[in-house]
Amino acid sequence: MMADKLQLSIVTPERHMVTDEVDQVNVPGTEGDMGILFDHSPLFSTLRPGQLSYEKDGEEVALVVSDGYVEVTSNRVTILAETAEYVSGIDRERAEEARKKAEALIAKGGLEEDELREAQKKLFRALARLEHSQSN
Question: pTM for the full model?
């Protein structure tokens, strides 16, 4: 590993999204956004749906992640997320459809507790995708 770099891994159940050496990582934690630099103290935290970004050689790359975890140990940052999608690849129309579908399901009512939680997760993910997508 190069000096003053973090080893970043972003993993979803489907694939490894990113494995790279980076200068900085910004994550949407459930207790607030966090910036992680070289020599950060060890950390384990949960993620909320939102924008995750990292900087490498002055270039910023942004993704939208859903629920998951972040672990920092010995200048390694590991992100385990249910979903991750590059901001540049978000389909706003699909995200809007997902938002409407989740809102309608919640508004209809009569859901079991686990069904309601799942519908809320889908809504929060759709809202995060819409908020951070690049406007066309």
Answer: 0.79
